[in-house]
Amino acid sequence: MTPPIPTPPMGEVLLRQDDLALPRPALDQLVQQTAETLGAAPRRVVATLLDNSAAWAVLDLALAEAGLVHLPIPGFFTAPQIAHVLQASGADALITAAVMDLLGLTGTPRPLTLAGTALALHTLAARPVPLPLPAGTQKITFTSGTTGNPKGVCLGAAGLDQVAQGLVQALAPLDIRRHLCALPLPVLLENVAGLLAPLAAGAECVVLPLARLGLEGSSRFDPATFHAAVMQTRPHSLILLPQMLRAWAGWLAATGQRAPASLRLVAVGGAAVGETLLLAARQVGIPAHEGYGLSEGSSVQTLNLPGADRAGSAGRPLPHARVHVDDRGQIHVAGSLMLGYLGDNAPAPVWWPTGDVGHLDEDGFLHVRGRLRHVLITAFGRNVSPEWVETTLRGQPAIAQAVVFGEARPHLSAVLWPLRPDASDAQLQAAVAEANRELPDYARIGHWVRARADFTPEAGLATANGRPQRQAIETLHAAALYDETAPAFPS
């Protein structure tokens, strides 16, 4: 086993990738040099399509320093999505790790070596007039929605800095000195909370290629590979998606191992987590705490913390954020909002309607139930958020993924994908029964079917960032879902 990396004093190293360790003076110098190089040509928007690396972090900081707009493209975007975001943003240049034939790029790219990584700087051909950018845009993050092309969210320096500084203030008592970037850096949550905030606090950011973290594409994750990386780097903090937490905690429990004692905070976001999973993770030494945020709010808005924790909630608002819930149960946020959407001249309102439903409890903890547009009305007139029921189902060890339906039906139905392919139907039925015991009668599952395929983009059952495609899942399983004389699982 590779020996663990010793933790340096606070501020001694700010950015690390294997043998490359950059203290603040060296990082600042590299950022300034890169900013001068990129700003020497007439450019406005520079896109990056790169794996996690120290070079990615330097480019992000340098583009901001040069006054250029950064368009970070996730590696899990498809070729048509990449073409769309380049076209819509009017990107002048694209930086990749190699010449990218799949995009049909022409011309000879300029070689660029940065932080030990060989890069290719492509100058993009002139295009039709792009969609307008709100004044002050520093970064464009594209959300991968459930249908159609991704939507560009334009963020300004002030909003990004507010979130970073809010996190610095909130996390100060934890004395976090090393953060391991476990999500793709183009994902806004990792970019802001996992890079900008630790750097602002003087903590060390460790960046590794995603394959070294067990990540492939948008939804494949190997917890054994991930655990090895965590054991080597011994971070104080991580940010995980719920499915990553579920897989890692389950692997630790199955192998009789524990997370390293160095961990002080594992923030979990991107989707609902659920109390059952959080408590199971803590049993194997993962200090998991759920948070909530959205791209339109420049990333994270609320977070549970050690000493201010209510498992099952999304935490209290962070110092930069304000939250209220209207009489329909819709959550609104303020304080670090986007400048607007790409191509839409309308500025963001003071309070942003998130489209999520939930409530604030008497102690100020936010409880998120799901999406307003997903709310089901059963045949008995009860409103049910399917995400709430899905989170409860996924809290069962046998269930990896669940999608719930039931609009105008007397009871709810679910499509289930097991955590293990050899899980029996009896195990899934027991898991559903256990979940039902945690739910009120109107939100219980009356009928379920085993999914015909994993919920992945390759199967056409998830978006590029891993969110289930509800309509596609319902269409594929409609006969079994709504013909209750059929078996509960396909032959």
Short description:
The protein is of the alpha/beta class and 491 residues long.
Describe this structure as you would to a colleague.
By secondary structure, the protein is α/β, with parallel strands linked by helices. It folds into 3 domains: about 15-155, Rossmann fold, CATH 3.40.50.980; about 155-330 and about 350-370, Rossmann fold (3-Layer(aba) Sandwich), CATH 3.40.50; about 375-480, ANL, C-terminal domain (GMP Synthetase, Chain A, domain 3), CATH 3.30.300. Helix content is about 30%, strand content about 25%. The chain contains 11 helices and 28 strands. The strands form 8 sheets. The protein has a 5-stranded mixed sheet, covered by helices on one side. A 5-stranded mixed sheet has the order 14-15-16-17-18. The protein has a 4-stranded mixed sheet with strand order 2-1-11-10. Belongs to the ATP-dependent AMP-binding enzyme family. It comes from Hydrogenophaga electricum.
And the CATH topology of the largest domain?
Answer: Rossmann fold
- Outline: globular
The pLDDT mean sits at 90
Uncertain segments? 486-491
Q: What structural category characterises the helix and strand content? A: alpha/beta
* The number of domains: 3
Instruction: Output the CATH class name of the largest domain.
Output: Alpha Beta
Largest sheet: 5 strands, mixed
User: How many strand units?
Assistant: 28
At the fourth CATH level, what is the homologous superfamily of the largest domain?
ANL, N-terminal domain
The CATH architecture of the largest domain comes to: 3-Layer(aba) Sandwich
Helix content range? 25-40%
Number of helices: 11
Strand order of the largest sheet: 4-3-5-7-6
Radius of gyration: 23 Å
Residue share in β-strands: 25-35%
Distance from N terminus to C terminus (CA atoms, Å) equals 44 Å
